[in-house]
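Q: Is it fine to ask for two folds in a single conversation?
A: Yes, each is treated on its own. Send the first.
Q: Here.
A: Result:
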Amino acid sequence: MRGRFRRLRTRSMAVRPGSGGWPSLSPRGLRIAGWLAAIGVIGLIALAVRLLGGNADGAAILPSPSATPGGPAPIAFGTTLDPATSQVPDTARTERFVVGDTFAYSVAPDAGRPDVVYVEVERIAGGDATIVQAAAEGEQAVPADRLAIAFTVPAENLLSAFGPGTYVMRIRDDPDGAPLAEGAFELLPEAPASS
């Protein structure tokens, strides 16, 4: 028992300054520590991107519909309209379109349905950022039997006119007025590969 206490007393409880409080690492240990530090930094960056936003496919992040009271209503995009409501049903909703799809969109503005709307389309990614259809050029009469602002068109017509890319659509009741509705969609040259 005494022998054990003597051995403990010979050990120093404090480390002298400058004696290198960190254990010395071999070159291989330093390399491993460097790799672990690099992996940690990459993990922190990935976590920050995940928490702060990003859609991981390299495409632009689509703007979200306005949540401001009195702001533009969100446009619902999809592949069909429900004949009973004139709205894009939840089961048909999508914001990505390819040749062969029907491009449908609808919006029920709070202030009622105008008889004529002006549709502006702006490319925000996938080519030069520009207005591809000015509001004054996008005049459309809303069919009398529709309960909402709602239209369908073959997606290939839009691909032919605008080309592939990410777009923001704004619907107005006056070509120079504030938008009644706004939403983003994407036109793809071909169907995305399933993962």
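Q: Second one now.
A: Result:
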Amino acid sequence: MATNRREFFRKVGRLTCLSAMVGGTVYLVTENRISMNGCGNNQFCSKCQQIASCNLDPAKKQRDTEMSNKGL
């Protein structure tokens, strides 16, 4: 099956986009800019709908903070 010029550039474009997405993800994971185990970022816990049942440390800290603020 012979590929024409248009198909060649489509395939190159697709592979370039795929490589950029995979490379960007690998970069973010290796530089510890994103976490692979849940949200792990405290700025989202206050608005999260699952904060009552979440077992991640930031959610526990947010629940403790909310409980201490209600006590004041």
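Q: Anything structural to flag on that second result?
A: Two points. The two ends are 75 Å apart (CA to CA). Residues 5 and 11 are 10 Å apart (CA to CA).
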